[in-house]
Structure formats: structure tokens, C-alpha cells
Design goal:
Blueprint (H helix, E strand, L loop, with lengths): L12 E3 L4 E4 L5 H10 L1 H4 L12 H16 L4 E6 L6 E8 L9 E8 L8 H15 L5 E7 L3 H9 L3 E11 L5 E10 L10
Parallel strand pairs: 5-6
Antiparallel strand pairs: 1-2, 2-3, 3-4, 4-5, 6-8, 7-8
Helix pairs in contact: 1-3
The protein binds coenzyme A (COA).
Amino acid sequence: MGESLNYLVAPQRLSRADFVVRAYRPGDGERLAEAVNASYAHLKTFMPWARPQQSVEESEGRCRDFAGRYLSSTDFVLGIWSPDETRLLGGTGFHLREGGLELRNAEIGMWIRGDAAYRGLGSAVLRALLAWGFGEWPWLRLAWRCSGANGASQRVAEKAGMLKEGVLRSHSVDPDGSRRDTVCYAALRGEWKDPAAA
Ligand SMILES: CC(C)(COP(=O)(O)OP(=O)(O)OC[C@H]1O[C@@H](n2cnc3c(N)ncnc32)[C@H](O)[C@@H]1OP(=O)(O)O)[C@@H](O)C(=O)NCCC(=O)NCCS
């Protein structure tokens, strides 16, 4: 990988017994709309993009935008699917929020649909993304940031073996308008070990 890297031939798909993680494609809009509309009450507290009713057209536009940005290596948004890929279980991705591609840093984001949350899926997907990110992607550093009010998100990072690096006090605003701390976690290639593989 060169210093002036401006695109990546990115991996497209990760398959595990309980889920598939893959890049969005044209045609995914209906399933994205179904998943976020069924999960609005669960997502609205911490996901600023969540809206009560997303149309299929709006969601299809987002899927096409995700696919375009994946191809241009400006953002790597991924869907979390049931093993047969008929049901969208959530979303994740490697986001370039810590500098350009050449730095080989990314931040992992995640949401799990309401009726699949709190059953271990988020933790399993985060561990799988760290293993994939350090194995098949060029990432050297993978970060995870969440609201200080988001206990489940902090727990998921800890369970996946990420290190808490610090707290940015009164750093962001949650969707309800309240100012919150941002809790910062990260894992480094060569240092991170999958806690479940121990
Ligand atoms: C946060 C999220 C991605 C986690 O995924 P998940 O599949 O629900 O997580 P898991 O079931 O693997 O693990 C959740 C852990 O948090 C714990 N937990 C749940 N609510 C909690 C709370 N309010 N405070 C502290 N811990 C909490 C659970 O007990 C579990 O830990 P355990 O296994 O030790 O018991 C998911 O719940 C979600 O989509 N939430 C809404 C969107 C969001 O907040 N995204 C993250 C933004 S940074």
C-alpha cells in the first residue's frame, strides 16, 4: 500500500454462521427501510439519522450512495444480514473519521435492529469486524466512539477487547439535545486479540 493511497480494492463480504456482513447494493432499499422503520424506538436515542418512517425510495437512495462511496473509498458502509441475506439485522462499517486512507485508521460504527438487540449479535459482529479489519483490510488502528450515556455500546467495545483510551467531556449532543461525553475505544493491529478465541 503506497503513501499516497487514494483508493482501496476493498473486501466486500464476511460470512459467519449467524450473520453475513456485506457492502450495500442497489435493490437493498426495501430491506433497509423495513429494518430501520421496525427499529425506530430502539434507534432514536443514539442514532441521529433515525426517522419515524423512512420511505423505500429514500432508503434505496441511501443504499446507492453507500455503494458509490464504497467504490470511491470515501466510506465503507456495510449491512449486517441474516445468513440467507433475506433480513437486514443492522448496519456497521469502517468510516474514515480519523484521517485519510493512507493513515490506515478507521472508526467502526454499528446499529442492530430492535428485535435482534441485546442477544450478543453486536458483540459478535464487532469481534468479527476487528478480525476482518486487521486480517483482510489494511487498517492499523480501529476506533469505536460512543455517547457516555450509551452503556450497551461501551459494554460491546469492552467485550470485543477494545481498549478505553479516554473520555472527551461534554463533547457531543445526543438526539434528545443533551450534551454528552464521548467515550473513545480503539484496537491496534498486532496488539488486539479476540477475547472469544482465547
Ligand atoms: C449498541 C448495540 C450496537 C449493541 O449491540 P447488541 O447486539 O445489542 O449488543 P450485545 O447483545 O452483544 O451486548 C450488549 C451488552 O450491553 C449490556 N447492556 C445493555 N444495556 C445496557 C446499559 N444500559 N448499560 C450497560 N450495559 C448494558 C448487555 O447486558 C450486554 O452485555 P453482557 O453480554 O455483558 O450482558 C445495539 O444495542 C444498538 O443498535 N443500539 C442502538 C444504536 C446504538 O446505540 N449504536 C451504537 C452507537 S456507538
